[in-house]
Amino acid sequence: MAGRRVAVIWMLIFVIAATGISIGRLSVSSVSAAGEGYEELRAFTEVMSMVKKHYVEDVKSKDLIYGAIKGMLNSLDPHSSFMPPDAYKDMQVETKGEFGGLGIQVGIKDKVIVVIAPIEDTPAFRAGIKAGDKIVSIGKESTKDMTLQDAVSKMRGAPKTSVTIGIMREGWEAAKDFTLVRDIIKVKSVKAKMIEGTIGYIKISQFQEQTSADLAAALRKLQDEKLSAIILDLRNNPGGLLNSSIEVSGQFLPKGKLVVYTKTRSGEKSEFLTDGERNYQQPMIVLVNQGSASASEIVAGALKDWNRAVILGTQTFGKGSVQTVIPLSDGAGLRLTTAKYYTPKGTSIQNTGILPDIVLKLESKNGAKEHPVLREKDLARHLKNEQSDTKPEEAETVPLEVDEKDDLQLQRAIDILKTWNIFKGLPKAS
Question: Would you please indicate which residues are annotated as catalytic (active-site) residues?
Fold first, then answer.
């Protein structure tokens, strides 16, 4: 029973890939039905009674209550939601980085389910699903006004079962159906290789339970190959476990350094410090873009504030809120935004994101197709940033795909690190 009272922090925009949680402090036992506003519940019970008695078809009380709860949470910010028991179980499975699904990161824009990015080597990736695609139907059901959680639940399922999704892409006259066979989605969160001699390139796709350990192993291997500089690629990384982001930061910062802190409505502050065993000190560049969200922004913000790395790319997603997931007594779960998080220097990134030290946008080559940029500020009912009044900007677009040779951000990072090493090797003036 005690286990059901443990709450967890959700640090991620919804994805059909792995997502992340961290231990929180809220529980159902702290809920009280007393207090201001609860007299309005009379209207709810009256409506429910009328529906049960007079609706043209028989309806279950549980369905009505779940529907009402979903509607209540949907009136809040875009990251607060209700999870029925099956969805809550799915969320718990996600933290392991392995589950049955299609392999699509998704968000909502203008009440439409939008593909943020397909995950490499998954059914969606192999079928040609692209970033920016609109998912207009799942099965035979329209996704209009469908919650993100419902869409995720419908696309997930047992491996080797199929689901048909309707895709509308810019330039198409009509939507096209893609029938995909679900598979076990195993998301390898860390990929590393040596490039340009002794520059270590590390790509973290999301922050899972094993990410920090996998990163440590990758860094040890690169160190054995005479590692002289590091490029940490967090582009299109939607986030993940808060603890994982702290541990990853700890591999590049000294022990005891503040990585991030959170603050609730009442002003309660919680700090998260590094506790790493190894501190790699090679020159470092972090690549970010509009798809770098939540835990990715925590890492980039910490390394930027401590002057540990040069941040290069484009403004990040801007998700600076903390979601606490509270297990409910019937096996369902409540995801509720309970705090905002701040970089070590006290900067809120809600809606604004992390602004790189070097801003460099990718450009489409040879008429390559583009897709619109989706950020936190574009989501309906997003929370405001108390430190900054963000103004509407012109719509942005980015290339759907970029070859490594055309990846200007990566090439610029390589050039900077090469120059870094050249100047470091120059003899001092006498």
Answer: 294, 305, 319
